[in-house]
Give the backbone structure.
Amino acid sequence: MAVWAMAVLGLSLEGGVVAAGQPTHALVTFGGQSSARGQGLLVLRLNACYAITASHVMGERTIASLIGGDGRGLLGEGRLLVKFEKEDVALLRVTGALVHGCGGGMEKTHRLDGVLSRRTRAELSFVVDDGGIGRIPLVVTDIGPEFLRVLPTRPVDSFWQGLSGSLVTVSDEPVGILVSVNRDGQGKAIRYDRALQRVREFFATPSRAGASPSLPRVPLSQRRDLKGVDLLAAANGGAVVRWSALPLRPENGASNLIEDGNHMWTVVAREYPIEVDFELAEGQVHTVGRIELLSDGVYPSGRVPRDIEILFGVEDPRSWLSLVSGTVFPHEASAVFKFAPVRSRQ
């Protein structure tokens, strides 16, 4: 296993969010140095993807790495927005390729009273390490206005650490989110309709604490001279939209590559090539003639990637143009690649 780090990198792909009728599953992890994990449910709201998980899964952390459970191996980053301590629910904003696996709409109404009965047969769904979906048959033993009690129906099944945040369904209808297990092996799940209610309250009453007026940002498309503008910077509307390796720690995520400050993307390199895809400022087509890769501050210097290939695209991600490649040497603070200007969006 190798560890690979760099302070900024080249370009690539993306566009669009796919909505489904039900929430989809994700594994919630915290990098190669942590055994902590849980489960999350991906839901869509106004074309943005969010993850709902148990708040104790996050602990004091604010960033998580997410692995999709649809078999495609999509990766994402989740940033904590809010915790509801009473319900043990946390809401994360999801970025990265995983947004393409985001599930049902957050605004969908779920009327569960007609679905649930005193001893309802149910199922617990969760993401396993290879990205597949595991399932445990359940029986709902108690129904309340906020929480459900669930118990595996087979003697061979039991709950284990890492299942918090899993989805409980009845006849494929989401009814709960597992949040805890007692000493008797019985699980406690927040009702799905209650969890969504709390999340909607967050969006209905946004906090204005610390808000201050700011000058409107002039879109790059309205600027006459873009010479010297960093087209990858988040401040200019750049975005990291896909990456192929999990970070060593969530705080070393790919979004660091376009943020201000001395931050790095540090990953566990289990296979090569390692890829990261960017969208240029404001998702527009720009003329690019220079790429600078920064490695200043990476320690030890052996973590700096050696061979780099930079590809460009405009619309079709299957027709990338390999424009330049080269070697980055660990004793150099940066490597600059200049080439004949090209028009590109990714």
